[in-house]
Protein backbone atom coordinates (compact mmCIF):
# COMPACT_ATOMS: atom_id res chain seq x y z
CA UNK A 1 0.00 0.00 0.00
CA UNK A 2 1.34 3.42 -0.87
CA UNK A 3 0.33 5.32 2.27
CA UNK A 4 0.70 8.80 0.78
CA UNK A 5 -1.98 8.06 -1.82
CA UNK A 6 -4.56 6.62 0.57
CA UNK A 7 -4.28 8.73 3.74
CA UNK A 8 -1.72 10.72 5.66
CA UNK A 9 1.10 8.56 6.97
CA UNK A 10 1.30 8.15 10.73
CA UNK A 11 4.84 8.63 12.05
CA UNK A 12 5.90 8.20 15.66
CA UNK A 13 9.02 10.18 16.54
CA UNK A 14 10.69 8.91 19.72
CA UNK A 15 13.13 11.70 20.58
CA UNK A 16 14.16 13.55 23.73
CA UNK A 17 15.99 16.45 22.04
CA UNK A 18 13.55 19.30 21.32
CA UNK A 19 15.81 20.75 18.59
CA UNK A 20 15.79 17.42 16.74
CA UNK A 21 12.01 17.25 17.08
CA UNK A 22 11.71 20.71 15.50
CA UNK A 23 14.13 19.81 12.69
CA UNK A 24 12.21 16.62 12.00
CA UNK A 25 8.93 18.53 11.78
CA UNK A 26 10.50 21.09 9.44
CA UNK A 27 12.03 18.37 7.28
CA UNK A 28 8.69 16.61 6.89
CA UNK A 29 7.00 19.91 6.01
CA UNK A 30 9.68 20.67 3.44
CA UNK A 31 9.15 17.25 1.85
CA UNK A 32 5.49 18.22 1.38
CA UNK A 33 4.33 14.74 2.34
CA UNK A 34 0.96 14.03 3.92
CA UNK A 35 2.08 12.89 7.36
CA UNK A 36 0.82 13.09 10.91
CA UNK A 37 3.91 13.34 13.11
CA UNK A 38 3.35 12.14 16.67
CA UNK A 39 6.05 12.68 19.29
CA UNK A 40 7.02 11.03 22.56
CA UNK A 41 10.12 11.84 24.61
CA UNK A 42 11.30 8.43 25.78
CA UNK A 43 10.98 4.71 25.25
CA UNK A 44 8.48 4.17 28.04
CA UNK A 45 6.10 6.68 26.42
CA UNK A 46 6.77 5.00 23.07
CA UNK A 47 5.65 1.60 24.34
CA UNK A 48 2.58 3.16 25.98
CA UNK A 49 1.73 4.84 22.64
CA UNK A 50 2.26 1.66 20.64
CA UNK A 51 0.20 -0.42 23.05
CA UNK A 52 -2.52 2.25 23.13
CA UNK A 53 -2.50 2.55 26.91
CA UNK A 54 -3.26 5.45 29.24
CA UNK A 55 -3.44 8.81 27.46
CA UNK A 56 -2.67 7.05 24.15
CA UNK A 57 -5.80 4.87 24.06
CA UNK A 58 -6.86 6.44 20.76
CA UNK A 59 -3.38 6.67 19.25
CA UNK A 60 -3.01 5.51 15.67
CA UNK A 61 -0.77 2.59 14.82
CA UNK A 62 2.25 4.24 13.22
CA UNK A 63 3.29 3.43 9.67
CA UNK A 64 6.85 4.26 10.66
CA UNK A 65 8.75 4.77 13.91
CA UNK A 66 11.73 7.15 14.03
CA UNK A 67 13.67 6.00 17.09
CA UNK A 68 16.51 7.75 18.89
CA UNK A 69 18.87 5.44 20.79
CA UNK A 70 20.06 7.58 23.68
CA UNK A 71 17.09 8.69 25.78
CA UNK A 72 16.21 8.77 29.47
CA UNK A 73 13.86 6.31 31.21
CA UNK A 74 13.96 3.62 28.48
CA UNK A 75 16.42 3.95 25.62
CA UNK A 76 15.99 3.00 21.98
CA UNK A 77 17.79 -0.31 22.40
CA UNK A 78 15.27 -1.40 25.02
CA UNK A 79 12.38 -0.15 22.87
CA UNK A 80 13.47 -2.10 19.82
CA UNK A 81 13.97 -5.24 21.93
CA UNK A 82 10.39 -4.85 23.26
CA UNK A 83 8.93 -4.22 19.80
CA UNK A 84 10.59 -7.32 18.36
CA UNK A 85 9.23 -9.51 21.20
CA UNK A 86 5.65 -8.22 20.78
CA UNK A 87 3.67 -10.14 18.16
CA UNK A 88 1.38 -7.15 17.55
CA UNK A 89 4.27 -4.70 17.03
CA UNK A 90 7.18 -6.58 15.51
CA UNK A 91 6.25 -5.87 11.89
CA UNK A 92 6.32 -2.10 12.38
CA UNK A 93 9.15 -0.46 10.44
CA UNK A 94 11.64 1.19 12.78
CA UNK A 95 14.25 3.65 11.56
CA UNK A 96 16.95 4.26 14.14
CA UNK A 97 17.88 7.93 13.90
CA UNK A 98 20.80 8.61 16.22
CA UNK A 99 24.04 10.46 16.82
CA UNK A 100 25.71 7.17 17.81
CA UNK A 101 28.45 6.18 15.42
CA UNK A 102 29.62 3.09 17.24
CA UNK A 103 29.85 -0.12 15.24
CA UNK A 104 28.41 -2.01 18.23
CA UNK A 105 25.21 0.04 18.22
CA UNK A 106 24.87 -0.37 14.47
CA UNK A 107 25.25 -4.15 14.64
CA UNK A 108 23.01 -4.46 17.71
CA UNK A 109 20.18 -2.53 16.07
CA UNK A 110 20.30 -4.63 12.91
CA UNK A 111 20.41 -7.77 15.09
CA UNK A 112 17.18 -6.48 16.64
CA UNK A 113 15.74 -6.09 13.11
CA UNK A 114 15.65 -2.31 12.73
CA UNK A 115 14.59 -1.33 9.21
CA UNK A 116 17.30 1.30 8.77
CA UNK A 117 20.06 2.89 10.83
CA UNK A 118 20.76 6.55 10.09
CA UNK A 119 23.28 8.78 11.80
CA UNK A 120 21.92 12.25 12.47
CA UNK A 121 23.89 14.94 10.71
CA UNK A 122 24.99 17.75 13.02
CA UNK A 123 24.45 20.40 10.33
CA UNK A 124 20.95 21.97 10.28
CA UNK A 125 20.44 21.79 6.51
CA UNK A 126 21.84 18.27 6.23
CA UNK A 127 19.56 17.11 9.05
CA UNK A 128 16.52 18.53 7.27
CA UNK A 129 17.65 16.92 4.03
CA UNK A 130 17.97 13.51 5.70
CA UNK A 131 14.47 13.81 7.20
CA UNK A 132 13.06 14.79 3.82
CA UNK A 133 14.76 11.79 2.20
CA UNK A 134 13.44 9.44 4.90
CA UNK A 135 9.89 10.68 4.30
CA UNK A 136 10.17 10.46 0.53
CA UNK A 137 11.66 6.98 0.64
CA UNK A 138 9.28 5.46 3.17
CA UNK A 139 6.11 7.03 1.79
CA UNK A 140 6.66 7.18 -1.95
CA UNK A 141 8.95 4.22 -2.69
CA UNK A 142 8.40 1.57 0.00
CA UNK A 143 5.27 -0.55 0.07
CA UNK A 144 4.05 -0.75 3.68
CA UNK A 145 1.47 -3.08 5.17
CA UNK A 146 -1.85 -1.56 6.12
CA UNK A 147 -1.54 -0.72 9.83
CA UNK A 148 -5.24 0.04 10.21
CA UNK A 149 -6.35 -3.56 9.91
Structural account:
The protein has 149 residues and is an alpha/beta fold. It has a single domain (3-139), classed as Rossmann fold. 42% of the residues lie in helices and 17% in strands. It has six helices and five strands. The protein has a five-stranded parallel sheet, with helices on both faces. Helix 2 crosses helix 6. It is globular, with a radius of gyration of 14 Å. It starts with a helix and ends in an 8-residue tail after the last helix. The model has no long low-confidence stretch (mean pLDDT 88).
Considering the chains and any ligands shown, give keywords for the structure.
149 residues; alpha/beta; Rossmann fold; 6 helices; 5 strands; globular
What is this entry, summarized?
The protein has a single domain (3-139), classed as Rossmann fold, CATH 3.40.50.
Strand order of the largest sheet: 2-1-3-4-5
Order of H and E elements:
HEHEHEHEHEH
Class by SSE composition: alpha/beta
The CATH first-level class comes to Alpha Beta
Give me the count of strands.
5
Query: What's the number of helices?
Result: 6
Between the first and last Cα atoms, what is the distance in angstroms?
12 Å
**Which ranges are low-confidence, i.e. pLDDT below 50, for 5 or more consecutive residues?**
none
Mean of pLDDT = 88
Question: Can you say what the CATH homologous superfamily is?
Answer: Response regulator
Instruction: Tell me the major beta sheet.
Output: 5 strands, parallel
Proportion of strand residues: 15-25%
The number of distinct structural domains comes to 1
Amino acid sequence: MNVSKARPAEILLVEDDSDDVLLTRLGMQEAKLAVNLHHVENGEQCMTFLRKEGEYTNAPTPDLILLDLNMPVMDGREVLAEIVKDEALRKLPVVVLTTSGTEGDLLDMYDLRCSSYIRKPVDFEQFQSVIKQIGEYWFTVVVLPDSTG
